Predict the structure.
Amino acid sequence: MNNSEQKIRNSDDIRPVDTRKEWKLLYYQHGRPGLEEGSKFKGICRYCELKDMCPLPKPEGGVWRCSYYRAFQKKSNLYNHVLEQLEKAKEVVPFDADICKILTETMNEIVVHFPVKMKDGRVKVLTGYRVQHNNALGPFKGGVRFHPDVDIDEIKALATLMTWKTAITNIPFGGAKGGIQLDPADFSSDEMERISRRFTYALGNNIGPEYDIPAPDVNTNSQIMAWIQDTYMSTVAPNERNRCVHVVTGKPIESGGSQGREKATGQGVVFLIEKWASEHGMDLKGATYIVQGFGNVGSWTARLMKKHGAKLIAVEDVTGSISNKYGIDPDDLSSYVKAHGGVRGYLKAEPIEHVTFFSTKADIFIPAALENQITDATAELLDVKLIAEGANGPTDPEGDKVLKRRNIAVIPDILCNSGGVIVSYFEWLQNKRSEFWDLEEVDAKLRKTIIAAYERVREAAERYKVDWRTAAQIVALARLEMVYKERGIFP
Ligand code: NAD
C-alpha cells in the first residue's frame, strides 16, 4: 500500500468527505487508472464497498451514483446465482440428481502465486486462477480475465457458464475460465507481457491445445493470447512446438488466429437480435439501442448494429455515461475510446448520470460490461423491449424477477454471447487442420450454429412454458445429462 492509499484508507480521512463535490475532488487528487496520470492511488470504491465506509450516501433503491466508478454491486455471489439458475431448471425438468450433483461442482480449481519483475526492478507476487468446470463434451475452454475484482468465486461462476454455453451451441468443448487479480492500468506493456508469460508458465500443463484452451475476456486481447501461445510453445519439446499452435484462440491472424474472431461475440449478439427482431415485428432500421461496456463485445455489437440502420443513443463504460438522442456513430466512438481509454469526454454526446443511462427509453439494451449490472433497482429503471446479454452474468436473480414482471424480453448470456466461443472452436479446428477460412465462411458457419442454438432455446421455452434463461439452462443440462447417461460414471 503506498502512502496516499494508506492515507485514504484511514477512516478519519474519509469520514469528513461527505459531499459529492468533495468526493470528485478527492478522486481527482488521487487520480484513477485510465483517467488521471501520475498517481498510483486506486481501489477506493472497492474499499468503500467492502468496509461500508463510502463517503457517498446510497441513493434510493441501493444504486450507487458515483459517476466515475460504478462497479459497486456485490458480485462475489455470481456463483450462487449460477447455481440458483441450475436449481430453477431442475424444478421444471427432473434431471438426474447424481448428474446435477456432478455439475454443481467444478472439476479443478487451480490457484497460482507467481513472481514477476517490475520495471523498477522490484518483484511483485501475483495471484492467478484457472477453474475447469467440466470436460464431458470436450477440452476445457474459456477466457482469461485481468481485473482487480477477479476472485475464485467469480472464476468458478464464469467457468460454469462456459460449460452451459458450449453445451447449448453443440460444440465439442467443456467449460473453464481463468484470470489474474490486477488492474492493467497499473502496469506497463512490458510488465503485462512478463505477467502473461509467467502466469502461463505457472499454469504449466494445466492448459494445453487438447486439454484446456484459453481465449480473451475482460482486459485481455489477441496480443496477450500471442504471449500465452508463445510461452506455452517455447516450453514444450522442440518437436512438439508446432503441434501446440491451438493452445489459445483469439490469437492475431498472423499467429494462427481466425478471420472474424475479434468481432465474433458482437457478431453473434447481432445475429440473434436480428432473428428476435424479425420474429417480433421490430424493424432494426431506425430502432434505438443503448450499450453498457464499449470494449470488444460492446463496440463490435454497436458497429455491426450500425449496418442494420439501428441508432445508438446512449453508452456507458467504466469512465462514464454519454447520450445523444440523434445518434452516436459507433465507429467514431470506437476510435475515440481507443485513443482516450473510455467514452468520457466524447464531445459528440452529452455526459449523463448512471441512473439516466439506465432510464433511457430505447428498443434494445445491450449489457456488455461486467456481471450484476441489472439488479432489482436498475431493472426498474429500464425502458426497453429487449435485453441482449453480451456480458456474462449481467442480470442478478432479483433483476431477472423484475424484468419478467415488466415483460422485458431477454436473450440470456449463455446463448447471446456464445459467438465468441463458437468462432474460437472454428479457429481451433482451422489450426488442427492447417486451414484458413475466409470471413464469409466463418460468418456463415457462426450464423448457422448460433441460430440453431437460438431455436433449441426457443423450443424449450415454448415446450416448458419458461423464460429464456431457464430454457437455455434446460437445453444445456439435457445435453450434458445425455452424455453422462451414455458413458456412465467411471469406474
Ligand atoms: P473488454 O475489456 O474489452 O471491455 C469491457 C468494457 O466494460 C469496457 O468498455 C469497460 O470500460 C466496461 N466496464 C468495466 N466496468 C464497468 C462498469 N462498472 N460500468 C460500466 N462499464 C464497465 O471486455 P469484453 O471482452 O468486451 O467483455 C465484456 C463482457 O463480455 C464480459 O462480461 C465478458 O465476460 C463477456 N464476453 C466476452 C467475450 C469475448 O469474446 N471477449 C465472449 C463472451 C462474453
Q: What stands out?
A: The CA atoms of residues 182 and 462 lie 43 Å apart.
